[in-house]
Each structure stands twice: as structure tokens, then as C-alpha cells.
Backbone:
């Protein structure tokens, strides 16, 4: 493990339990909260440890925020720390979506939830935009001419990743790896490159609570295991994959039910990918929810804990540092691109634009304002506005 921890295992587990309970805003906001809380305020992690975790989280498949949380637990407390932080982070939102699934089964729909999300979605844009800006300043450089001159290549990766993410609406893993390799070769090429040819690089009841079908349970497990293994990046990247399987291939949900499932994920705290729990519940009850969540998060957990020890051992190498810097610039660019894509879907009229702008300004100028308070106000505003129009 790296250095002596400034926190206990209990403290880091409780932090992620709270983040999983109150952390709204999706992957961009969640990784921003982790940086603000654990690096800037508590100083439990160094900037270097955080950047390494963010780069590794993007390299491995699965939800970005959950992977970073698992890595942070691993940094000083190994496998036990990774397991506890991962469970603590995911469990609160899993319980919430199961409860919402029970309500959904009882009352047959959630039109009111879309009214809530009308305001919440706009506020989330303001929240994650501020988080993305802070990550840009920390990971790429300050927005001034001097930084652009010194870190021009990192800024180029950053802008390219924004453009690609906006155009394709998903993060491209090959671009991240390519940016890392290019920056490594430019800034600090490894000695073996000079001595030999480059070898191929391999990186790494009424509510239906107990109702389930064994056959469907197996299908759920295999499908969500595939989703967790082969889909990289944030919840934004996994949603199209889920839609294709859940609606088009298996016909488990209708279009409206799938939209409701995504809305549930966005108005509940924790990782956006927890929508898999809600989908699993609607399809096959509590066991379906449990299998869907377990199958989705298991690959990212295994990839993170398997790769982390090797990643940490070689992280001091100058070439590896350059590789990480290149990847990180592209990762942050992709996150900013995700903000733009999500904004395009959430900012649909003047009221939502005003809510988003007001949310961002509120976080800047009202220092004691917490994200859950902002989300609550936005939810009420959303319902009121929809009643009036």
C-alpha cells in the first residue's frame, strides 16, 4: 500500500455510504465530489493518487464513479477496503431503486417522476458543469494562455475527447489509450523503445417482490454481466446498450418503462448505472434486481482490484506518469463532452435553462448550499412549472 493512511477503514466506508446516499449528479458530479472531499478538504488522498485512480477507472470497463470509489478503498486498505467502499457506495441507491420499483409495480407508472425530473435534470446540469470545470483546472491546466502553451498537447487531447464524446455520445476507450501512448512517447519515451521494436501492448407480492423466473434470472445475469464487462465509461455509455437489450432484444420493458427506469436513476443518488437494479426489479422482482446489480458491478470490481497493484507499482515511472497524464486529459474532456450531451437532453426550454444556470451560480456563490438541498428545490420547481404550463 502507498504510505500511511490518514483515515481508518471505518471512516472511508462511512464516507462512501454517505456519498451513495446523498451524491446526486451522475459520474461527473460524483468523481468531482470525491476530489473535493478526499483530496482538497480532508486530504486523505494526494492529487497523484486521485489522478491514478481516475485513469485506471476509465481504462477498466464499468461505471466510472463506482470504479474510482473501489480504487480509493484499495489504495490503503487493499481488497477489504475496495469491497467495503464498493458496497457502501452502491447499497443506498440500490435500496432506493428497489423501493421505487415496488411503488412502480403498485401504482403502474410514474408520470409524476418525469415532472420531478424536469427540474432535477436541469439542476443536475448546473451541478456537473461546475464539477467538470474544477476537474479541468486540476487535471489539464488553468484556462489561460500560459497553460495552453505549456500543456498544448493535453489541451488538444481534451478538446478532441469533448468533440468525439458529443458526436458519438459515448466514451471511446481506444482514444483514451491512444492519448496516453502519444503523450508518453512525446514526454518520456521508455528506454526499451530506443533499444528494440515496439511489441504489441496488451492492457489491461403485489409489488412482485418475490416473483421470479429461473430462466429469466439466468438471462438477466448473462446480459448484465456482458453490459458490465464490455461497456466503458459513465452511465451515459451504458444506457444505449441497456436499451438495445432490455427493450429491443428481450422485450422486458416498453419504451416508456425504460424512460422511467432512467429517470429513477437520475433522481436517486449514487451511480447512474444503478438503474440496472430498477430494471431487474421490474423484470424479475427482488432477485432480478439483485442479480442485475451484482452482474453489472462485479466486472468493474474485479478489473480494478486486479489491475490496481500493478498500476501502483509502476506509477512512479516517468513514462507511466506521462501515459496517465495523457489519458487523464482525454478522460476529463470526455466527461465535459458528457455534460454537453446530457444538457442537450435536459435543457429543453427557457425554464430548464434558467434552473441549470441558477444551480451552477448557487453552488459558486452560496458556499453552505449542499447538492441535495439544490436537488430538492429543483424537484419542487419542476412540479410547479409543469402544473402551470
Residues:
Amino acid at each position: 500500500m502507498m504510505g500511511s493512511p490518514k483515515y481508518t477503514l471505518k471512516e472511508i466506508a462511512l464516507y462512501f455510504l454517505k456519498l451513495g446516499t446523498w451524491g446526486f449528479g451522475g459520474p461527473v458530479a460524483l468523481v468531482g465530489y470525491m476530489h473535493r472531499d478526499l483530496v482538497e478538504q480532508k486530504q486523505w488522498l494526494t492529487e497523484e493518487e486521485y489522478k491514478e485512480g481516475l485513469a485506471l477507472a476509465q481504462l477498466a470497463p464499468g461505471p466510472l464513479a463506482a470504479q474510482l470509489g473501489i480504487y480509493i478503498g484499495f489504495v490503503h486498505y487493499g481488497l477489504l477496503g475496495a469491497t467495503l467502499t464498493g458496497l457502501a457506495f452502491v447499497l443506498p441507491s440500490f435500496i432506493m431503486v428497489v423501493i421505487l420499483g415496488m411503488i412502480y409495480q403498485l401504482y403502474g407508472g410514474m408520470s409524476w417522476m418525469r415532472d420531478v425530473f424536469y427540474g432535477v435534470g436541469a439542476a443536475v446540469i448546473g451541478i456537473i458543469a461546475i464539477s467538470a470545470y474544477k476537474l479541468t483546472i486540476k487535471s489539464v491546466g488553468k484556462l489561460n494562455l500560459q497553460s495552453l502553451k505549456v500543456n498544448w498537447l493535453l489541451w488538444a487531447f481534451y478538446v478532441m475527447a469533448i468533440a468525439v464524446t458529443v458526436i458519438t455520445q459515448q466514451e471511446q476507450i481506444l482514444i483514451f489509450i491512444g492519448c496516453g501512448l502519444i503523450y508518453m512517447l512525446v514526454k518520456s519515451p521508455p528506454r526499451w523503445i530506443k533499444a528494440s521494436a515496439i511489441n504489441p501492448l496488451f492492457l489491461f407480492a403485489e409489488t412482485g417482490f418475490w416473483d421470479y423466473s429461473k430462466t429469466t434470472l439466468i438471462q438477466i445475469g448473462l446480459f448484465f454481466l456482458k453490459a458490465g464487462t464490455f461497456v466503458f465509461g459513465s452511465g451515459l455509455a451504458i444506457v444505449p446498450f441497456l436499451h438495445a437489450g432490455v427493450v429491443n432484444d428481450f422485450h422486458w420493458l416498453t419504451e416508456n418503462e425504460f424512460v422511467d427506469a432512467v429517470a429513477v436513476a437520475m433522481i436517486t443518488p449514487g451511480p447512474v448505472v444503478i438503474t440496472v437494479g430498477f430494471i431487474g426489479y421490474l423484470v424479475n422482482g427482488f432477485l432480478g434486481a439483485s442479480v442485475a446489480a451484482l452482474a453489472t458491478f462485479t466486472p468493474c470490481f474485479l478489473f480494478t482490484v486486479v489491475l490496481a497493484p500493478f498500476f501502483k507499482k509502476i506509477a512512479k515511472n516517468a513514462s507511466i506518469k506521462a501515459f496517465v497524464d495523457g489519458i487523464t486529459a482525454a478522460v476529463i474532456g470526455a466527461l465535459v463532452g458528457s455534460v454537453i450531451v446530457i444538457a442537450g437532453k435536459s435543457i429543453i426550454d427557457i425554464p430548464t435553462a434558467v434552473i441549470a444556470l441558477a444551480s451552477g451560480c448557487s453552488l459558486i456563490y452560496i458556499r453552505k448550499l449542499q447538492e441535495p438541498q439544490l436537488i430538492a428545490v429543483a424537484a419542487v420547481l419542476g412540479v410547479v412549472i409543469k402544473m402551470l404550463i
Notes: The radius of gyration is 21 Å. The first helix runs from residue 9 to 22. DSSP finds 16 helices and two strands in the chain. The beta strands are 62-63, 232-233.
